[in-house]
Every structure is written in structure tokens, then in C-alpha cells.
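Extended Data, panel c. Modelled sequence:
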Amino acid sequence: MPTQTRHRGHSSRGSKFSNRRRSYGGGHKRRRSKAKRPSFNPAQFINKNPVELKEEVYTPEHMFNTLGLSDTLVENLSRMGITAPTPIQDQIIPEILEEKDVVALAETGTGKTAAFLVPLIERTLNNKNQQTLILAPTRELAIQINDELRKLARGMRLFSTVCVGGTNIRPQIKGLRLLNHFIIGTPGRIMDLQDRGVFKPEDINNVVLDEADRMLDMGFIHDMRKIISAVPEPRNTLFFSATMTKAARGMADEFLKDPVTVSVKKKDVTNSIEQDIVPHGHHDKFEVLTNLLANDEFSRVIIFGAMKHSVEKLSRELSHKNIPATSIHGNKTHPQRQRALRAFKHGDVRVLVATDVAARGIHVNDVTHVINYDLPNTFEDYVHRIGRTGRGTKKGKALTFVSAKNTS
């Protein structure tokens, strides 16, 4: 994402901010936890008769125009096609408006991003001295959060910057010296900027941990603890997680004060997505894959691989076989990853080969198939991968490649 500028904003009298401009940058290598051996048997999850899904009708207790939100914010929601709160939004927005700490158990696709952005925008409009830090596990998710923030805050003169890895850190340092009501980034990069004295946690009033379980899985626990510990109290801490692991529970207990817990679970993907295994021999794995992709029904496919170099190699080999493909993995720069995602979303290629960095927070409509070319490490990773297809009430298929010697 190129550096972007904005018009100068005017902070209120007595603000701790000066008038500044927004800048986007990035570039930090994350700490990674050691690779795990796959700890489950995908054959246990063969499901050739998925549950037929029906759109559930939810009647919200609140409407956006009854929550005391500004007219501009309600208009922006309407412009985005968001007319009624989802369950997570309906239940948690009033709590955040009252500045309560919250634990929200919600997955992607539930409207969770707007669930924390809408009340934080409203509170910032009422007090522009507030500054919010939003931590996310991947640069793609951080950028998506910022994109949604910009749409929701249109016309409000609220400013933000994105702090992620993969690009030059210097524009980001410049951006943090400007007026930012929202700072959105990955823990590794924020920690780097904190160590340099550029990111100032003492200025933060609100902290959002989005996909906290994923950040913990990626080995960010020490960075997260150091960042949050440096944010002074009283602060408002919002904890969003798809699952409540032991580590996630410990983090929530450590940093949240009397939190309100809201749980909104989506469909059980292991029941609602058609799943099967694909046996392959020692030397014909790639041939089995290309034979599958020759079928017209494989029109928009995400293939998951285990290693960055093997994902890149597979993408190139598919392209050489005249199967339009691109890849996304940690060795690609931020602009390269964004271009790959755009090409896949816009239909310029029909296959995206990815490491698990794309398993969460990436919203691509109408993915017909997910293929686990390499086994995921855990059952949780498996669920997150296959959840890229069959979203909403749409049908999807997930196929997992398994050595034929393990299927006999």
C-alpha cells in the first residue's frame, strides 16, 4: 500500500496532539514460534454430506440510530450497506460505548471489526484527545481494519496510521510523529517502534487485541505483554478472539478489568463444508493436483502449503502449466502480497497458493475450494483454513492431500 497523505486536521483546544498528516509504512520481521508436527488425522473429518445451511434471522435489540451514535456515523454505516447490527455488534457496542473492558469470542465474518470500530469512533468524536492502539496478527488484517475505519470515519477528520512489517520503517516513523487517533499494527512492528521511542504507549487510552489467539499462536506473547504493560491505567482494553485457549485466558485475566464477555459463534465449519481427503503417491502429488484443477468447478481456489519457498515454487509450477496462480507468504514484500490478493479477488488468477498467514482475516468472496496441499499443524489451523470457503450460506469444498500409504 503506497504512502498516503491527508488534509491537516485540527485538534481540540488543549489536545496533546499537534496538527499532522497521516503516513503509512511498515517493515518488521516477526518472531515465530517453532513449527509443530501435524497433530491430527484429517481423515477423521471426511464429510461428504454437509449440513444444509439456512440464513438465520437475527432480531437485534438495538438499531444504529438508537445507540446514540452521531448522524454522520449512522450515514456512513448505511452507505456501506450496514443497516442493522449483527449479533456481536448488537451485544457489544453498548458495552464499549460505556467504556467497559470486553472479551468477545467471535470469528471473521461476524462483523467484529465494526463491533469495536463503531463505538471507538463515536467515543473519539466526543473526545479527540483519545488515542487507540489496535493490534492484529498480520499486515493484511491490519490494513483491512484501517480500510474499514476510513469508510466508517468518512468526513469526521479522524486520522490513523498503519504499522506493519514488509516495507521501509522510515515512513512509518514519520507517520507516528503526526496526529493519529488510531494506530493499527502488528505486535512485532509496534514493539520495534516502541523500543525506538517513536511509538509512545503512554499516549494510548484504548487497546484492541484483534484475533488475540492467533497472535499468541504466532509467538507474540512477550511483545503483547510488553506493549500493553506500558499503556497506563485507567485504559479500556477490548479482547477479540475466535477461541479462548489457556494462553488467551491468561492474557485476558492479566490485562482486563471486570470484562463483559460476549460469545457469538458462527456455524460449525466441520459440519457445513464438504470435506474429503485426496490420496497421492510419492511422486505424483503435483500431477494429482493439476488433474483436480482441470475441472471447471475449481473456479476460485486457495491452496495451503507449509513453507514459504514451497508455496512460491508451487505457484510458479502451476503458472507454467497454464493454471493462472499467484502466491502469498512471508518472503513477499507488503506491496507484492497486496498485488497477489487483488489479482485473486478480482479474478485475474483463479488459484492463490498461501502459507497460513492467509488463513485468518482475509475476506475473499466465492472461494469454491480450499486445498490443503500440505497438512496444517493443528486442528485449529485446519478449521481456519477451510473456513475460507463456504462462507455465509454458500457451499464450499475442502480437500486435504494425504500420502496414500497413510490411507491404507
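Confidence is low (pLDDT under 50) at residues 1-35. This feature is highlighted in the accompanying rendering.
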